[in-house]
Amino acid sequence: MKKGPNFIEAIVEEDLRTGRDHGRIHTRFPPEPNGYLHIGHAKAICLDFGIAEKYGGKCNLRFDDTNPTKEDVEYVDSIKEDIRWLGFDWEDREYYASDYFGKLYEFAIDLIKRGYAYVDDQSSEEIASQKGTPTEPGIPSPYRDRPVEENLELFRQMNAGEFPEGSRVLRAKIDMASPNMHMRDPVIYRILFHPHHRTGTTWKVYPMYDFAHGQCDYFEGVTHSLCTLEFEVHRPLYDWLVEKLMTGDYKPRQTEFNRLSLNYTILSKRMLLELVKQGHVRGWDDPRMPTLTGLRRRGYTPESIRNFNESIGYTKVIATNDVGLLEFAVREDLNRRASRVMAVLDPLRVIITNYPEDRTEMLETVNNPEDDSMGSRTIPFSREIYIEREDFMEDPPKKYFRLSPGAEVRLKSAYIIRCDDFKKDRDGNIVEVYCTYDERTRSGGPEAGRKVKGTLHWVSAPHALEAEIRLYDRLFNDPDPAGHKDRHFTEFINPDSLRIITGYVEPSLQDAGPMDHFQFQRIGYFNVDPDSTADKKVFNRTVPLRDNWSRQR
After folding, report:
1. Domain boundaries defined on the chain
2. Catalytic residue list contains 259
3. What confidence category does residue 16 fall into, taking pLDDT thresholds of 50, 70 and 90?
4. Which of 95, 175, 369, 439 has the smallest set of CB atoms within 10 Å of its CB?
């Protein structure tokens, strides 16, 4: 059944119906370049760009580079790469808050001249202590009624670098008794001597995000400023500042939606940076990280992320989503696009005693039963093969339909074999299994349709490629790792979030390139890691074939 419009789409459709902003739809995605984007940002990207795409509008990419102490060109480049990977394009509309530093500075001067802003000499601690509480009004600053000319000169001196960092700020003069704490004379400019990655040392004062946000929207002609719910209480300040800047009837409108929250996942940039710096992960692109670059390296597809965000929707309700829903979206997408291949991760050698020693035959197998257009390929079959160690039991329980003494199984796309014997080492470990095959059961043979209850995957031992297999799992073993006041979130890191083993894959994967997707039959979805070389293939487990965590809980 086709879904109806979400509440934001309903607002946009009503605006189009009534001719608001002359029928223009213009959104923006405003990331701060102080870290890599994560799956939570993907929800905002899909909304900001998706609304523009759906309703024939435009979406700007605007970097909120108002804090040079935390920003880096590396993050700018990664953000652009991630947005393009998700399938969106801002065309020629790449902007930066720093593009408007001159206009924002002049707007601040205008507010001072009109009596709407003043320079405060107090420390941040003193200002915070005077803010009051939600039920008690704040205390006006002793500098609140400074003369306009004095404020203008002090602000000029602030930007000239004549005062130390933290010694003065510029505050908007609004209402110290407002029930909204954000309207109690908020700080709109502070002194910073850190060089900016785009403007160098030109500026010594930098605007706060709340001051720059709405004004940049106004400068760019944005009609719908879509923000997450924590900005709902900031909206009166957004409107107040825009109204002071407006020269006509155009006014951008801020609308809030619920941010993405996932269990077993950290989506705090500060905490993600801590994981990187402390070496708990290999970097921002570690496949265990919820960053888009990490998910991409793990094998997640942009389509799966877009489908996931569409499935959970956009509402005003704060909720934590099960990360299993994201993993389900990945499985659904890869099920349609990934070729089925053979790989054995814990090999046990099987010798087919009645198969000629010098014989190799090529057997045909389909690439993906979900998509006939993907065709087929051939795989080598020989006297010695590998199967998974868990697919053989010396003394199996009832309803065990894999290989055991006297039992028959079908080898995928090959023959039916019967176990006749096996060999153990001195420690009692099974090291070889001896079988015979039924030549008549090959595809096209007289007994190709003979039924047996078990089908196993395998690889030909002489032809198999040795590969490094990285078995990634969830990084945290607690559903809310950041929610414990008495324990640090890193205490909940899953010690089994990465296991590296050596396995064998079929020879067709020799030519597989970085980021190619595959389903290892009966095991899970994997992709080729960029660490792979011509001499050594490295595969990452993207997701298992089914959700094992829900059964563990």
Report:
1. 16-257, 269-339+467-552, 343-457
2. yes
3. very high
4. 369
What is the H or E stretch that residue 102 is in?
helix 101-113
Q: Which candidate, 423, 462, 455, 418, places its Cα nearest to that of 440? A: 418
Tokens of 397: 């329980």
Q: Percent of the chain scored above 90 by pLDDT?
A: 96
Q: What is the DSSP letter of 512?
A: P
Catalytic residue selected from 204, 259, 282, 337: 259
Angle between helices 209-220 and 101-113 (to 10 degrees): 110
Q: Indicate if the pLDDT at residue 375 is higher than 90.
A: yes
Beta strands 465-472; 339-341: pairing state: unpaired
Mean pLDDT score of the chain: 96
According to the model, what pLDDT value does residue 553 have?
47
Which of 68, 76, 366, 108 lies closest to 241 in space, CA to CA? Answer: 108
3 state DSSP class of 465:
strand
Q: Is 269 a catalytic residue?
A: yes
Of 9, 20, 32, 103, the catalytic one is 32
Q: Of 256, 208, 250, 260, whose CA–CA distance to 235 is shortest?
A: 256
Residue 551 has pLDDT above 70, yes or no: no
* 460-514: pLDDT as tens digits: 999 999 999 999 999 999 999 999 999 999 999 999 999 999 999 999 999 999 9
Active site residue 2: no
CATH superfamily of 343-457: Ribosomal Protein L25; Chain P (2.40.240.10)
Q: Same CATH fold, 343-457 and 16-257? A: no
Dist. CA 414–CA 342, nearest whole Å: 12
Does residue 3 register a pLDDT over 80? no
pLDDT (tens digit per residue) in 45-54: 999 999 999 9
Report the alpha-carbon distance of residue 297 to residue 526 in Å, rounded: 11
CATH 2.40.240.10 correct for 269-339+467-552: yes
Question: Which member of 24, 173, 253, 269 is catalytic?
Answer: 269
User: What average pLDDT does the segment 302-316 reach?
Assistant: 97
Homologous superfamily of 16-257:
HUPs (3.40.50.620)
